[in-house]
Amino acid sequence: MNENIFRFFAGVILITSMTISIYFRRKADNESGGAIPRKVDGNLMMTLIKVLGLVLWLSPFVYLINPAWMAWAKMGLMDGIRWMGVGIGFISIIGIYWLFRSIGSGITPTSATRKEHKLVTHGIYRYIRHPLYTFGSSMFIAFGMMADNWLIAALGVMAFIGMAIRTPKEEANLIEKFGDEYREYMKHTGRFLPKLK
């Protein structure tokens, strides 16, 4: 299969998901009176997030510009698996849009909540407490599948692990802000995937 076909779909999925994220994050900042300081997560965690985030975001663009530069990380996947990555990528875009529409101005770049933040329990948040981590990581793993690149896929997995490590702090902040309302919400929803009843 022509590599350019997979590059095209990978580029569409990456740019679309970035556009959705940037639009809704800016809108949230404007509606809430500005961005939240990033120091709330601590210097070590923020340094790790910045460094790994830079590598995570640069590697797909390196592939899109010239796949030969990333050829050293090629896995040799069958086209069927690469097409599966395209499908997962488009599902991730739908999930990313759904979560941003659901959370509205409550989205933040850190584990902190905004002063006016209200607990969101509708839309995708009716089923999953942290869909951004699920769909964001899935999108990068799907990109790695489309690009036939173990590094990009591994970075997606590492991003998910990093966010999973940060999640207890985020949930502690939410319990502090919402108390029993959040504890009750936790009983009925899954952390990263819908809870089986």
Task: Please specify the SSE layout and strand pairing.
Blueprint: H1 3-31, H2 43-65, H3 79-103, H4 131-147, H5 150-178, H6 180-188
Helix pairs in contact: 1-2, 1-3, 1-4, 2-5, 3-4, 4-5, 5-6
How would you describe what is shown here?
- By secondary structure, the protein is mainly alpha-helical.
- The chain has a single domain (3-105, 113-188), classed as Four Helix Bundle (Hemerythrin (Met), subunit A), CATH 1.20.120.1630.
- Helix content is 67%, strand content 0%.
- It is built from six helices and no strands.
- Helix 1 runs parallel beside helix 3 and helix 4 (131-147) packs antiparallel against helix 5 (150-178).
- It is elongated and about 55 Å long.
- The relative contact order is 0.16.
- The model has no long low-confidence stretch (mean pLDDT 86).
Mean pLDDT: 86
Which topology does CATH recognise?
Four Helix Bundle (Hemerythrin (Met), subunit A)
> Class in CATH?
Mainly Alpha
The largest sheet is: none
User: Gap between N and C termini, in Å?
Assistant: 42 Å
Category from helices, strands and their pairing:
mainly alpha
The number of domains is 1
- Percent helix: 55-70%
Number of helices: 6
Shape label: elongated
Total strand segments? 0
Q: If you compute it from the alpha carbons, what radius of gyration comes out, rounded to the nearest whole angstrom?
A: 17 Å
CATH architecture: Up-down Bundle
Low-confidence stretches are none
Quaternary structure state of the chains depicted: single chain
Give the DSSP E fraction (strand runs of 2 or more residues).
under 5%
Name the helix and strand elements from N-terminus to C-terminus, one letter apiece: HHHHHH
